[in-house]
Amino acid sequence: MNTGDVPATVTLESVNSVTFTQDTDGNIILHCPQNDGEDLGSDGTTEPVHKRLRLSDEDGEDPQDSTSTEYSVVTLPITEGDESFEVTMTATEMRDGELESDDLSETTDRDSSAQKKGKDVSAVSQAWFTTKEDKDTLVNKGHKWKQGMWSKEEIDLLMNNIERYLKNRGIRDPAEIIFEMSKEERKDFYRSIACGLNRPLFAVYRRVLRMYDNRNHVGKYTDEEINKLKELRQKHGNDWATIGAALGRSASSVKDRCRLMKDTCNTGKWTEEEERRLAEVVHELTGTEVGDVVTQGVSWASVAELVGTRSEKQCRSKWLNYLNWKQSGGTEWTKEDDINLVRRIAELDVDDENEINWDILSGGWSSVRSPQWLRSKWWTIKRQVANHKELPFPVLLKGLQDVVEAPPSAINKVVVVGSRSANASPSPVTALQIPVQIPVQITHVSSSDGASGTSDSETITLNSGALQTFELLPSFHLQPTGTPGTYFLQTGTNQSLPLTLSANPTVTLTAAASPSSPDQIILHSLTTDNENVTVQMSHPGIIIQTVTSEDLSDSLGQSELEAEQELVKEESSENQNNSGEDEQNEERSKDIHEGEKTLDSPKAEETVESSGMGEGAVLMVPSPSSFIPTNEDISTDSVLPLGTLTDPILQNQEEGSD
DNA sequence: ACCAAAGGTAAGGGTAATTCTCTTGT
DNA sequence: TACAAGAGAATTACCCTTACCTTTGG
């Protein structure tokens, strides 16, 4: 995050009434009345009245330990002469009597100071602990012990901790510490970065190793690799480190891959004989009888050994997802069960999905094949929501209740909170949207271009006045196409979309993919004399815009919208399509991993200058979060760094889901 | 030599996502 | 009969915990 070079901490004065909203990344957006921005725009533009705040909850998991909360607000100037700025808000929980301001960005030696103060340093995160007893002892003492999959918040915190550690020591690459330094040199590394995480050190250690091991996340094994792996296995046995090194894979990766290949393994459909043998073996090893529900305490390695023709994974999967249920007289799963599942989960009234006890939930439910299976069923339901990953659990759950309980005809249509468009075509994607506002600024620069996009056509109906739905797009750039006023919208995922800019008297950005593509994007903005600035992003059924304008529906003239729609159509026909799906996907997953690994991502708020944008409009998007690097085939010089917008929906669609 | 802590490995249970295959509808 | 779409089964890359081993430093 961009909290590094903060010159000073300032106090936020409230300006009349301010409103906070929170986006899906946990960033807080501050909205305040536009009454103090009169002389801000030197080039005749209006400063957006939204400031992005990052709420960094340092000890959020343990609120009972603190007695008060203090928020400090930090402003981050972006560039000289540019009035827009980013605001970083750090929430610091204070203990009794502690009034010392602890600004996250002003770290001198925060790691140690945090430790001295006893802040963030739970007993759990500061010891290696490897036994169950250790865990039980600490849990009994009231310590929090987190385990299971790491949440996004935890990963963010970990990354922040690492970044801070690096900054304090002037180290660029965490891999230096992890893989090159001696134990002595990195002495306090793991302790420091474990601060605030209620996980034992070894868990943090594992996680970090995996994250920065570039032999991890290599992807699917090729046939060649498999063959080589078999050879190496013969030669080196279970020396995974050696095998991995020879193969350019991590030790755990080759170990895991070997688990899947057994010389005697069958693939495909199970024969009746195999099923019979599996059941026999499971019951024998667990001391149970046919008809008993057995979902736990099975040694699958032993089972596989005895079954002979299947791997442990295959055995486990077959048993938990089918055979046990079949044998114990289970019934078929129905649509009503879908509804029931969502309902029952809602009744649990938990804040976090991890708190769901699937064993209990699946108890006495004849159509549930196993707790594990039920969980995967939940996943299937959940994934009907395109942006489920971005939604807070309660919101997702509420939305799912609506979706699941809706009449069949309503399903498979776009489900959008704050939706638009009476005539938007139904999409196969069910997308739940929570209203999120993002600060998007269009700075109107004098233009020599004539206005474009004037004609008539279909009508887009906007929801009147009320807050529209906001989504964040993947990081993107404007790339000049050679045609004056036309740019490519270049996303971080090798997606080029033609973009037309015109700036007089309004700014209109229009982008569209091929007519048939569901990825059609309309980027539309209208600005009139220092007044309202609106960026409107229309992905099927999705609108992105700032909420500067209170009278949105009034200011957006019908004709302008119509014109835009027409433009999109026209451009669509001459649209180019780039690389194939697979290639894109590969690139994408690479990006995702890069994003996870790269700490010092380019700052979003670089100055926008020259590079073909001298005329037209400048789109600026202050954003603190991860910046996905562009593709090599785009010259960086000609690319305008506009900032990072990540659109969960777009991402989901790009990922090819649903 | 001993001990404790830190660092590291192997095994194995598990998750999340993709790919394959079968079924159903047109 | 051919095809498409959807659902469910199978597969797999990766994740996490546990138990145990090794190294290091006092």
TrEMBL record:
Q: Which GO terms describe its cellular component?
A: nucleus
> Which compartments is it annotated to reside in?
Nucleus
Keyword Translocase appears in the UniProt entry: no
Q: Which UniProt keywords apply?
A: Activator, Cell cycle, DNA-binding, Nucleus, Repeat, Transcription, Transcription regulation
Please note every region of biased composition (Polar residues): 623-638, 649-658
**Which spans does this entry mark as compositional bias, Basic and acidic residues?**
48-57, 107-119, 586-606
Question: From which domain of life does this come?
Answer: Eukaryota
Q: Where is the HTH myb-type domain?
A: 262-327
**Which SMART domains did the record assign?**
SANT (SM00717)
Q: Where is the Myb-like domain?
A: 262-323
For molecular function, the Gene Ontology terms on record are: DNA-binding transcription factor activity, RNA polymerase II-specific; RNA polymerase II cis-regulatory region sequence-specific DNA binding
Instruction: Report residue spans for region: Disordered.
Output: 32-70, 93-119, 553-658
Q: Which Pfam families match?
A: DMTF1_N, Myb_DNA-binding
Family indicated by similarity: Belongs to the DMTF1 family.
- Record-given protein name: Cyclin-D-binding Myb-like transcription factor 1
